[in-house]
C-alpha cells in the first residue's frame, strides 16, 4: 500500500477531532444519527481523505457542519489550518461557505476578516483590501483590519493611503512608532523630488521632522533638495549630520559627501571623518575604512594607519594585504576595492536579508530601520 501524503495525516486527526467534538458539544443531530452511527457524509469525507481526494472530502465536511457557535469555531480552525499550510483555495472555500450562511454581525465580521487574510496570503491584494476596508468600518476588529490595510499599502508603495491608515490608527490610540509615519512622508517627498516639485518636497519633509525630530532620512532628502537649489554648503552640512546620526548610511553616502566637498575639501573631509569615527566606541571606523576602500581607493592612503588596523581584523582582506606586501599601497587598495564591490554590505537585523545597498525598509520582511552594516566578502 503506497504511503499516504502529508496532508492526509494532518486532516485525518482533524476530521476525527470534529467527530469527537460533535459528540461532546451535542452536534449529534448533524454528525451522528439517533442510533449512534456516524453521519454518512462525515464517513464519506473520511473515505475521500484516505483516497487522496481532499476537495471532495472538504465538500462533505462543509455539508455536515451547521452554524452553531461551536461549529463556527471548527470552521474557523479548519480555514486557519488550510491558510497556514498555504492551501489558500481551500481556506477561501471554508470562509466563503460561512459567509453564505446566516451569521450574526459579530461572526460575519470575523468571517470577512478571515477571508481577507486568505486573499492576502494568496496574493490577491485588491480583494483582500476590499474586505479589510469593510471590516475596518466596524468596531470589534477595526484595528486588525487597519493594520492589515497599512501593510497592503506598504507592499503596494501607496504611501498616501498608508499615511491615511496610520492616522486612523492614531485616532484609536493604536499607532505604530512615529518614525513609520515619517518614513511615509519621506517616501512621498522623494517622489516629489523626482518630479522636480521642490516646494512639495520641503513641505513633506517639514511634516516628517514634526513627526520624528532629528530624523536622519529627512535630513538626507533635505540635502538633495539643497543640492538641487545650488546650496552645496548646506547640502554638505545636512548630509554630514545625517551620517553622524546614522553611521550605517556612510557606506552608501560617502561618494556623495566627497562630491559635495569637492577636490579642495576631500582630504579635510576624510580627516574629520577619521576623527569622528575614532572618537566613537562602535564600528564606525571599520565602516569608514570599508567605504573608502569601496568608493575612493585612491584616497585610502590618506588613512593608511586606520586601514591597516581594520584590515588586520578581517581575514580575507588581511590575507590580501599580506599578498600585496612590497607592492605600493595603492595596489592593495585597488584589489580590496574590487572585492568590496561584490560584497554584501548591509543586513536586516530582523530577518537576516543581505544586500549591497542600504534600505530604509527591508525588502525581505518589510521592517523599518532594521538594516545594519555588515561586510560579507564573496571571493567568486
Written description of the protein model:
The chain is mostly helical and 380 residues long. Helices cover 69% and strands 3% of the residues. The chain is built from 19 helices and 3 strands. A 3-stranded antiparallel β-sheet has the order 2-1-3, with no helix packed on it. It is elongated.
What would the keywords be for this entry?
Serine Threonine Protein Phosphatase 5, Tetratricopeptide repeat, three-stranded antiparallel beta sheet, mainly alpha, 380 residues, 3 strands, elongated
What topology emerges from the helices and strands here?
Elements: H1 6-25, H2 28-31, H3 40-50, H4 54-64, H5 69-84, H6 88-99, H7 105-122, H8 125-136, H9 142-155, H10 159-171, H11 178-195, H12 198-211, H13 216-228, H14 232-245, H15 250-278, H16 284-295, H17 304-311, H18 315-323, H19 329-341, E1 344-348, E2 354-355, E3 371-376
Antiparallel strand pairs: 1-2, 1-3
Helix pairs in contact: 1-3, 1-5, 3-4, 5-6, 5-7, 6-7, 7-8, 8-9, 9-10, 10-11, 11-12, 11-13, 12-13, 13-14, 14-15, 15-16, 16-19
Provide the succession of SSEs. HHHHHHHHHHHHHHHHHHHEEE
Rg value: 30 Å
Low-pLDDT sequence parts: 20-38
Strand content: under 5%
The residue-averaged pLDDT reads 82
Give the overall shape.
elongated
Number of helices: 19
User: What name is given to the CATH topology of the domain at 177-241?
Assistant: Serine Threonine Protein Phosphatase 5, Tetratricopeptide repeat
Instruction: Quickly name the level 1 CATH class of the domain at 177-241.
Output: Mainly Alpha
* CATH architectural name of the domain at 177-241: Alpha Horseshoe
End-to-end distance: 49 Å
Largest sheet: 3 strands, antiparallel
Task: Give helix % range.
Answer: 55-70%
Going by helix content, strand content and strand pairing, the class is: mainly alpha
What is the strand tally?
Answer: 3
Spatial order of the strands forming the largest sheet: 2-1-3
Amino acid at each position: 500500500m503506497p504511503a499516504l501524503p502529508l496532508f492526509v495525516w494532518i486532516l485525518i486527526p482533524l476530521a476525527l477531532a470534529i467527530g469527537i467534538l460533535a459528540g461532546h458539544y451535542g452536534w449529534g443531530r448533524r454528525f451522528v444519527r439517533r442510533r449512534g452511527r456516524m453521519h454518512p457524509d462525515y464517513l464519506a469525507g473520511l473515505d475521500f481523505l484516505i483516497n487522496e481526494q481532499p476537495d471532495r472530502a472538504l465538500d462533505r465536511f462543509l455539508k455536515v457542519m451547521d452554524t452553531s457557535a461551536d461549529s463556527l469555531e471548527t470552521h474557523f480552525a479548519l480555514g486557519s489550518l488550510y491558510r497556514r499550510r498555504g492551501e489558500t483555495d481551500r481556506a477561501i472555500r471554508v470562509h466563503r461557505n460561512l459567509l453564505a450562511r446566516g451569521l450574526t454581525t459579530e461572526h460575519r465580521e470575523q468571517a470577512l476578516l478571515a477571508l481577507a487574510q486568505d486573499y492576502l496570503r494568496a496574493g490577491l491584494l485588491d480583494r483582500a483590501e476590499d474586505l479589510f476596508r469593510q471590516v475596518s468600518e466596524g468596531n470589534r476588529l477595526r484595528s486588525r483590519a487597519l493594520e492589515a490595510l497599512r501593510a497592503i499599502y506598504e507592499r503596494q508603495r501607496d504611501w498616501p493611503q498608508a499615511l491615511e491608515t496610520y492616522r486612523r490608527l492614531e485616532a484609536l490610540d493604536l499607532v505604530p512608532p512615529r518614525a513609520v509615519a515619517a518614513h511615509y512622508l519621506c517616501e512621498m517627498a522623494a517622489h516629489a523630488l523626482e518630479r522636480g516639485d521642490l516646494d512639495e518636497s520641503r513641505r513633506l519633509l517639514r511634516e516628517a521632522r514634526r513627526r520624528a525630530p532629528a530624523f536622519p532620512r529627512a535630513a538626507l532628502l533635505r540635502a538633495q533638495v539643497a543640492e538641487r537649489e545650488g546650496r552645496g554648503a548646506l547640502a554638505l552640512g545636512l548630509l554630514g549630520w545625517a551620517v553622524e546620526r546614522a553611521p550605517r548610511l556612510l557606506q552608501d553616502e560617502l561618494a556623495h559627501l566627497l562630491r559635495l566637498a569637492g577636490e579642495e575639501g576631500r582630504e579635510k573631509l576624510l580627516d574629520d571623518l577619521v576623527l569622528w569615527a575614532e572618537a566613537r566606541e562602535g564600528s564606525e571606523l571599520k565602516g569608514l575604512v570599508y567605504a573608502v576602500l569601496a568608493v575612493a581607493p585612491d584616497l585610502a592612503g590618506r588613512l593608511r594607519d586606520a586601514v591597516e588596523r581594520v584590515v588586520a581584523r578581517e581575514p580575507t582582506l588581511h590575507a590580501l594585504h599580506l599578498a600585496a606586501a612590497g607592492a605600493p599601497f595603492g595596489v592593495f587598495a585597488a584589489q580590496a576595492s574590487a572585492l568590496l564591490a561584490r560584497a554584501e554590505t548591509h543586513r536586516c537585523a530582523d530577518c537576516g536579508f543581505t544586500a549591497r545597498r542600504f534600505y530604509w525598509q527591508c525588502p525581505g520582511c518589510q521592517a523599518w530601520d532594521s538594516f545594519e552594516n555588515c561586510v560579507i566578502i564573496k571571493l567568486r
